[in-house]
Specification:
The protein is of the alpha/beta class. It is 20% helix and 28% strand. The chain is built from eight helices and 19 strands. The strands form four sheets. The protein has a nine-stranded mixed sheet. It comes from Candidatus Kinetoplastidibacterium blastocrithidiae TCC012E.
Length: 354
């Protein structure tokens, strides 16, 4: 089905003033747009989430932690460059994107804070391989900055190190936050527990590729970036238990959804009888979920509003239907919802028949 779908079919008009530049004072104070299975749209607040979930429903969170992946460096000529770490490959080697006013030549050595030497020794498409003279994790912690998305234009402040991070972040490796999780605080977690809403965790390290635009006319021609994910045995058990009780699996964020669906795509690791994953998984995924995809695990999704013509908007459209999603987005624009990472949230129920 996706072979002939033009990327222009996933466009919408967004006034710039609706792009949130700061988070709400309290995480759970965001608004929540609910698209139910009957195609109805409901304007709610995020603190209403517990009331629209059923006891026993399972929320699956991404517990990745955003690293201070943005570094400023200086070329031998004196020119400034910016390094955005995509992935740490070992203690001194990393894959990264580089911003520079001039072409970066392989073999160039740059300096961070006139102390740390970085050798740019190889390139693969938009990414460079870098060799650091010191341990990368230590360099990032000392000299790096939290990499806010490019559409957040405000000056970064100390609060971003806390607020561009979920409260359950524990496994370092992401260069972008799993933003659906940013709305959860202790107040709403307590409310969910009181309603017997279950919770489980996986890890998917969000890469810089999440911000890369689709440059092809037809969406099937786009190749997704690769991200590492890990689904532990405790989460597999929680999914099986929820299925046995006839409860829903709700992915908190597109990253959780991609990890769950990627794990289920291997027929040897998927039980079609109860729609659950059989074994824990630690793997990489470049899964591009497009209209026509039949969800194996995910029944519903909590997510933020996504950029026009983005892979994330396409994923949500695959779950709920393009027309439903674009109608909801137009509604959100009309009623001044806040968009993107620091913006409001959606609760989207699947339109696919199981």
């Amino acid at each position: 089905m996706s072979e002939s779908i033009n990327i222009s079919n996933f466009n919408y008009f967004l006034p710039k003033n609706l792009i949130a530049q700061n988070p709400e004072i309290e995480r759970s104070n965001s608004r929540l747009l609910h698209i139910d299975s009957g195609k109805n749209i409901h304007d709610l607040n995020f603190c209403d989430l517990a009331e629209i979930l059923e006891p026993g429903d399972l929320l699956v969170f991404n517990d990745t932690k955003v690293i201070k992946a943005r570094l400023k460096a200086q070329k031998p000529s004196g020119g400034k460059i910016e390094i955005l770490i995509e992935r740490i490959l070992d203690s001194n080697i990393a894959l990264a994107q580089i911003k520079s006013n001039s072409t970066i030549k392989l073999g160039t050595k740059v300096l961070i804070s006139n102390i740390i030497e970085v050798d740019i020794f190889s390139r693969s498409n938009d990414f460079f391989l870098l060799n650091f003279s010191e341990n990368i994790a230590i360099v990032l912690e000392k000299y790096g900055d939290i990499p806010l998305p490019p559409y957040i234009k405000k000056q970064k402040d100390n609060s971003d190190e806390l607020r561009y991070q979920t409260i359950f972040a524990k496994n370092p490796g992401a260069v972008a936050a799993p933003t659906a999780g940013l709305h959860f605080d202790q107040k709403i977690l307590k409310k969910l527990k009181s309603r017997d809403i279950k919770m489980a965790f996986l890890t998917l390290h969000v890469g810089a590729g999440t911000f890369q635009p689709i440059r092809t006319q037809y969406i099937n021609e786009h190749r997704m970036h690769t991200e590492r994910y890990d689904i532990p045995s405790s989460t597999i058990k929680s999914i099986k238990d929820a299925r046995l009780k006839g409860k829903r699996i709700i992915a908190v964020g597109t990253t959780s959804a991609r990890a769950l669906e990627s794990a289920a795509l291997n027929s040897d690791n998927y039980s079609s009888e109860n729609r659950s994953i059989i074994n824990p998984v630690c793997n990489e995924t470049n899964l591009f979920i497009k209209p026509g995809y039949k969800f194996k695990i995910v029944d519903a999704l909590i997510t933020n509003f996504h950029l026009p013509k983005s892979t994330l908007l396409i994923l949500v459209s695959a779950l709920a239907g393009r027309d439903r999603i674009l109608k909801a987005y137009n509604h959100a624009v009309k009623y001044n919802y806040r968009f993107f990472s620091y913006g409001d949230a959606m609760f989207v129920e699947c339109q696919n028949e199981k």
